[in-house]
Amino acid sequence: METKIPKPSDAFLSLMRADFTTQWRNRRSVIMSLLVPIIILISWKGLIAKLGGAFVFSIALTIGLTSIGMMGYAISVARDRDKGVFQRLRVTPVPTPFIMMSRLLVQLGMIAVLTLGVFIIGYRVDKIALTPAGYILTFITAFLGGALYLGFGQMIVGLIKNAETVNSTTRLVYIAFIMLGMFGELSDNMEFKNIIHWSPFGTVKTILAAAMQPVTWNNDATLALVATLAYALVFSFLGIKWFRWN
Amino acid sequence: MIDQPGSSILQVKNLNVFYGTFQAVSNVSFYVKSGEIFGLLGPNGAGKTSTLSSVEGLLKPQSGEITVAGFNISKQPLHARANMGVQLQATSFQPELTITEIIKLYAGIYGVNLTSEKLNALLQDIKLEEAASKKFGQLSGGQQQRVSLVISTIHDPILVMLDEPTTGLDPQSRRQLWERIEAIREKGHAVLLTTHSMEEAEAVCDRIAIIDHGKVIATDTPQGLIDLYRNDPAVISASRKGKITLEDVFIGLTGKTVRA
Ligand SMILES: Nc1ncnc2c1ncn2[C@@H]1O[C@H](COP(=O)(O)OP(=O)(O)OP(=O)(O)O)[C@@H](O)[C@H]1O
Ligand SMILES: [Mg+2]
């Protein structure tokens, strides 16, 4: 029998349109994930002179990326898996990886929005301006850091099957990241500081801060970059390996 | 089409499905021809959904061969799936999307060019023009069922598989669904459905397979099964009004105990 498989590109575009619409309808939770970085940018205004613009910027961005990977990605994947949304899509002639790729692309879009938002508010409120190279490098590193947290989110939905548990776990991890990230580096305990520095939070923050001022990029930043990539690869690998569609 | 398995749209041969060490489907074989409505009947946990999931390629059976329109589901899953329309037992669509958006999504996935006239005609046909901008979760069970059927047949597939399509429907909606299923048969397409309703099996199915504990224990036309088993002592003892019904045969063959 003659069968035409629908064009994969058409199928992918339809998936993406649906996923972007879904994201748009969820804009309240999207705004929530942008809110924390913005609050940091605004409320830490007075600290910028002391801590430096790059420090504040990189923390705001890292926290935003964490929330995209975990709240934006993991929670919605866990919920749709629970509801059977994926199973319904999987019985169609769309290649299965497309279903996830479309979702990931939406989150990459979110990372772009977040980064732009932080740039704009940082410029308006905190008068932080980067060089063109700084803006471009920050954009790229934001995607790398985003990949790490999307991988982390993938690992959570790979490890935990129940949507409710995914929900509470990601929230817990998110809050832990904020706590550690904001107060960890201000601590006096060197060992503790070191652990934070090389944690998935610290490495992303380091590369973002260095990318904002490319002249300050040093050995430490390069090592943090390698660590970020390694984290991203390991998390995604395990997350995909452990993932079950139902 | 000739009346033999060789010309069938769906063929399932020696299917075995395990969950861990538990065997849910055991050596199941059957076929569905074009222009035929085939029913899978069995108590809760009999293995109906597991059988359908194997056909859909949602789960990998330990052994067995499944072909849809001549395509092997494990070797050419996309070709096989392009030829089937599916309604799962537990389906949900993205709760954020409207009915129109969901229909457009699936039309796009199947490569169906859906003009706004076509879309309106579809919605009109299922009497949901008013609900076009509602979300799936805001519809009643019967309305959800209609949307679900429209989506599973949007690409006019030659095999339509429906897992308990009439569960929870009122008599009117059920009758209407039967008519829609029969319209698919009129086109010469094949329908595979599961049901717990003997009345439904007798009313719409051309042939049925009774499946229990993962095994097919009988396959025939509804009347054929009644004739075949009318003298079976277990069937006679299940009969309540003297007259042997399909339900008596079903109870006689699968036993009276309620499944865990
Ligand atoms: N994912 C799973 N893991 C383990 N066991 C499963 C799984 N899915 C189904 N089973 C078991 O396999 C058997 C067959 O289940 P299946 O869903 O195929 O039955 P069914 O005939 O569709 O039942 P129902 O009429 O209740 O829908 C049952 O005993 C069920 O508990
Ligand atoms: Mg079932």
Automatic annotation (TrEMBL), chain A:
* Keyword annotations: Membrane, Transmembrane, Transmembrane helix
Q: Which GO terms describe its molecular function?
A: ABC-type transporter activity
Keyword Aminoacyl-tRNA synthetase set for record: no
- Segments spanning the bilayer are 30-48, 54-77, 98-123, 135-160, 172-190, 221-243
Domain named ABC-2 type transporter transmembrane is located at 12-201
Query: Does Transmembrane appear among the keywords?
Result: yes
Q: Which InterPro entries match?
A: ABC-2_transporter, ABC2_TM
The UniProt entry lists membrane topology as: Multi-pass membrane protein
Q: Where does it sit, as one GO cellular component term?
A: membrane
Question: What is its subcellular localisation?
Answer: Membrane
Q: What is this protein called?
A: ABC transporter permease
Which species does this protein come from?
A: Ginsengibacter hankyongi
UniProtKB/TrEMBL annotation, chain B:
* Superkingdom of source: Bacteria
Keywords (alphabetical) are: ATP-binding, Nodulation, Nucleotide-binding, Transport
Recorded hits in SUPFAM superfamilies, A to Z, give: P-loop containing nucleoside triphosphate hydrolases (SSF52540)
Does the keyword section mention Cytoplasm? no
Q: Which residues form the ABC transporter domain?
A: 10-238
User: Is Transport found in the keyword set?
Assistant: yes
Q: Which InterPro entries match?
A: AAA+_ATPase, ABC_transporter-like_ATP-bd, ABC_transporter-like_CS, ABC_transporter_ATP-binding, P-loop_NTPase
Annotated Pfam families: ABC_tran
Q: What Gene Ontology terms describe what this protein does at the molecular function level?
A: ATP binding; ATP hydrolysis activity
The Swiss-Prot or TrEMBL record describes its family as follows: Belongs to the ABC transporter superfamily.
Protein name per Swiss-Prot or TrEMBL: ABC transporter ATP-binding protein
